[in-house]
What does this fold into?
Amino acid sequence: MVYRVHPSERVPHHVDRDYFLRLLSEHIGNNGLLFDAEDLRPYECDGLSAYRELPWIVALPETIEQVQAVLRLCREHGVPVVARGAGTGLSGGALPVANGVLLSLAKFNRILEIDPVNRTARVQPGVRNLAISEAAAPYGLYYAPDPSSQIACTIGGNVAENSGGVHCLKYGLTVHNVLQVRIVTMDGELLTLGGSGYDGPGYDLLALITGSEGLLGVIVEITVKLLPIPPCAQVLLASFDSVEAAGEAVAAIIGAGLVPAGLEMMDNMTIRAVEDFVHAGYPIDAAAIVLCEFDGIAEQVESDLLKARDIFRTRGATDVRQSTGEAERKRFWAGRKAAFPAAGRISPDYYCMDGTIPRKRLPEVLHRIAELSAQYGLMVGNVFHAGDGNLHPLILYDANNPGELERVEELGGKILEVCVEVGGTITGEHGVGVEKINQMCLQFGTSELAQFHAVKRSFDPYGLLNPGKAVPTLHRCAEFGAIHVHRGRVAHPELERF
Amino acid sequence: MVYRVHPSERVPHHVDRDYFLRLLSEHIGNNGLLFDAEDLRPYECDGLSAYRELPWIVALPETIEQVQAVLRLCREHGVPVVARGAGTGLSGGALPVANGVLLSLAKFNRILEIDPVNRTARVQPGVRNLAISEAAAPYGLYYAPDPSSQIACTIGGNVAENSGGVHCLKYGLTVHNVLQVRIVTMDGELLTLGGSGYDGPGYDLLALITGSEGLLGVIVEITVKLLPIPPCAQVLLASFDSVEAAGEAVAAIIGAGLVPAGLEMMDNMTIRAVEDFVHAGYPIDAAAIVLCEFDGIAEQVESDLLKARDIFRTRGATDVRQSTGEAERKRFWAGRKAAFPAAGRISPDYYCMDGTIPRKRLPEVLHRIAELSAQYGLMVGNVFHAGDGNLHPLILYDANNPGELERVEELGGKILEVCVEVGGTITGEHGVGVEKINQMCLQFGTSELAQFHAVKRSFDPYGLLNPGKAVPTLHRCAEFGAIHVHRGRVAHPELERF
It folds into this structure.
């Protein structure tokens, strides 16, 4: 399925491909370029596989200078550019543009420096998330954010999407764990943003770049914070006979002032799918389970576990188990981390949503999702970062049934609209990409969207970087029917500028 | 002393003051306007009292609509605007512009909502930092960032400066504790940035605004995170017979993986000044003291205190005392928080610097500061957030001695240059304001500065908000002599644009 690019988001040009390939090859050599349909195929989508598009050209630069050269050439000729890490993103942020260059950072795969005294790692963007922790392990250090895809996803993609993971409740998202990035702008300028200091002078462009989904610049180097590996970590697995009870137990844990390293919830459908797949030891009859991990020094972990266990029991847990050692702890988490692929085993296709809600609205939102699921006749599993209020409803479907994907998309959109309605957001950690671009029109008013575009122009006045992603044009929103009703505002006077 | 505005930073206009006052009064009434020299006097400086300038007009709006009206009028007539909270800032960020409106947020002093379930407080920008914690206390909650000025400073100023405090080592700066802000742009548009979710869709304009020193918009509402008041907190006071030994003990505490709530250091000169002033119980013969606080549950605090005490002893502490209760704990901190005013008692004037350095460079930097102090014949006391590597050298002087302030400024500049040289930054938490604007030319290259200006234009294309602060024009840097040598780069081709 091809992504429906809105006419206002197209970047037309009339450059001849062979001519442009010759120009590119002068800077990065023929080995760094792909153009045969066969070679382009692996780049046609990212983790949001429902949408596919062959890029015009794939460029694989090896040096910062080569990235600068590619971007300068593209800018000169008005050619759009989409940067790509490992392609594990779930919102289509790395979906190619049919007439654009797909800029892969795959060759930027070196760890440049581990500094155990200052507890930092300086790495290239194509380094895998888990590889940083592996390189830091000899110093007793690790990189905290752990997306479920951490074996495969790259740190550059993590920064672009501001990725989360099961331990973000305590350790924060990518933005809280990055100290410095170097980016190349569409003009080919190399900027160093952020630094070793706690606060930095100047505008916080480091935070601005983090989560900007490849629209502002291409990340070519990253310095991340490392943390000491906690001396002790154990996880509780609590079973409940209703999703509501599990939700209330989660609220009680947070309400008691405990700070779990992770606090995750799964419903029965997901439990069964996972258990059948990775044999994590989950109770397949439970309506919901909560995983609650504490880490730190042994005394504190023990004390926190005791308190959490009490809370779970008081809140109606039918069973509470504690991991008996590192192997079991890892097995409990392996189940959670395999939830998405497990869904893929019980259904030909699945669509993973990602929204956040205020924690106190959890029971109500779960109820609304169940209603929508029944209404659309589509099964929805629920896996979520309960502590953060970050939901991941998994819609199961079969793309071979005509019209089913369209129904799935509509249901997904409705779920996101419920999130916005209760005061939440349309993304927790997966980004907007192409997947949720229409819902951005509900999330924001025209003033905010206009400001987003103004910031975008301050980095990329030509609109060549990852066009059609993350921030909708006001034209798109007008057609989506959102602009003239949002927050009671009428159409923005500056609409015509976009 | 009048701040030397660079010609490229001036915003000339020929608007008649009486005429403009009439326009303003139509929107905010005569009670919201000050224009007599007598009434303008209290606004002529902020905490950086070395620079003074009377504003053209002071406006005190009461509603968001009035702020919008003031900004729209100023934009229409090309009148510059400086927003002001309590005026406790230390870098001159709220220094008025002679032909501009000083926009005081003093009347925005209401706490709009405390939400104990979601642990948030929604407040107006003129609410004092400490007032938020006082309002949250009945729910067992508090607002964590605690600048030394927290009795007086306002949360709006905290956001504008991304303020820190002694507990930021564990709880983060303002940016880590703010969930949402509403700002009015120079166009009079009201934008809502950030939200309740953990990550938000769209660019992270909340982080961009935080610490932007009033250059991008006027903050009119803020939602902050509240935290549960820790059930237990105790502080160690360790004495050392050399500053170097104290510095190494600090590094050892961090190196052991401990996370103190605060980790502060003071040298002998500061200890004596403070002790004489607030009788905090500090050892006046120590070359340096370290304050090290842990908070959390009692078992963990006990365990952490034991470990830290061991480290201090091993690293040569001549004495280690532990606060015996809440009263003593508060007294130990009272000394630290009074360090600046205490310096004011032993010297007619003092100048507080604010730079950060990588922690491992601490002994070397302290040595360089001592050398510079001798060279300039000016006493320098050292108080700092040791855990963060955030230094606050206090230069003592007498403004009545002709030429002495100029020597102080030169010495201050040299100290900041040392910070940059060792890989640090020219500000830790006080902002750049007018104080460090020249050193920004050393901190950043022209590409970064050009990008800062581009971002500024995306919010305020007319350059009317707080002109001459925080980000130097490239013309200023060229005259300061920094541009053509920084990082081996030659003058920026786009220099002429600024």
